[in-house]
Structure formats: C-alpha cells, structure tokens
Amino acid sequence: MHELAICQSLMSQVERIALEHEAQSVISIVIGMGPLSGVEAQHLKNAYSIASADTLAENAKLIIEFLPLRVKCNQCGSESDALPNKLVCKQCGDWRTRLISGDELLLMSVELAQT
C-alpha cells in the first residue's frame, strides 16, 4: 500500500509548514487528487490516521478534493473533460490528445492553529 508512504511524506511536508509558521497544531489538510493519480482515496484516508499519529496533524481533518481529468486535442486544439478510460477530444472525437490535468496529487492548503 503506497498510500502510507505518500501520507508519511505528506506529514513531513505539513509538519515543516506548521513549524515554519510556529503553529501549535494543524486543523485541516486539503489534498487535490486527479483520477489518474494512482492513489485510492479510501486507502489514503486509512493511511492518514497511521501517518498522522503523534504529529501536529494528529487531530486534523483530511479533506480530499477530486480534480477533473482534462485533455488537449492535438488535432483541433480544444480542451475538454475526459474519462480515465476514454481520453478522446469531446469537440472532434480524435484520440490524439495530451493530458493537461488529472494525474496530480497536490497539497492544496493547510489550516493551522496558533496560540
């Protein structure tokens, strides 16, 4: 389960941010996840409780925002939403597209508690 390693890396990043801002604790963490990120949201949530134990984020809420899958057509140049198993242009139907977004896993925000 690579989600645990991802959460451990996330906790390192969040703790670094919290310490830089002299926070007492972390209230919430917002993650942006695309459908092609290779990460299962439920596995990430399960791993989060393990990875956040004994950290400043131990009681923080993990919020996962699902990001859209978008492609740009190499033929007509239009950008459109796509499905993970159907990366075709919605404008002209061509299959020669380039992925613009949908494979990312981003730390979008961290809400900190100060004293």
TrEMBL record:
<dbReference type="InterPro" id="IPR000688">
    <property type="entry name" value="HypA/HybF"/>
</dbReference>
<feature type="binding site">
    <location>
        <position position="92"/>
    </location>
    <ligand>
        <name>Zn(2+)</name>
    </ligand>
</feature>
<dbReference type="GO" id="GO:0051604">
    <property type="term" value="P:protein maturation"/>
</dbReference>
<protein>
    <recommendedName>
        <fullName>Hydrogenase maturation factor HypA</fullName>
    </recommendedName>
</protein>
<dbReference type="InterPro" id="IPR020538">
    <property type="entry name" value="Hydgase_Ni_incorp_HypA/HybF_CS"/>
</dbReference>
<comment type="function">
    <text>Involved in the maturation of [NiFe] hydrogenases. Required for nickel insertion into the metal center of the hydrogenase.</text>
</comment>
<dbReference type="GO" id="GO:0016151">
    <property type="term" value="F:nickel cation binding"/>
</dbReference>
<keyword id="KW-0862">Zinc</keyword>
<keyword id="KW-0479">Metal-binding</keyword>
<feature type="binding site">
    <location>
        <position position="89"/>
    </location>
    <ligand>
        <name>Zn(2+)</name>
    </ligand>
</feature>
<feature type="binding site">
    <location>
        <position position="76"/>
    </location>
    <ligand>
        <name>Zn(2+)</name>
    </ligand>
</feature>
<comment type="similarity">
    <text>Belongs to the HypA/HybF family.</text>
</comment>
<feature type="binding site">
    <location>
        <position position="73"/>
    </location>
    <ligand>
        <name>Zn(2+)</name>
    </ligand>
</feature>
<feature type="binding site">
    <location>
        <position position="2"/>
    </location>
    <ligand>
        <name>Ni(2+)</name>
    </ligand>
</feature>
<dbReference type="GO" id="GO:0008270">
    <property type="term" value="F:zinc ion binding"/>
</dbReference>
<keyword id="KW-0533">Nickel</keyword>
<dbReference type="Pfam" id="PF01155">
    <property type="entry name" value="HypA"/>
</dbReference>
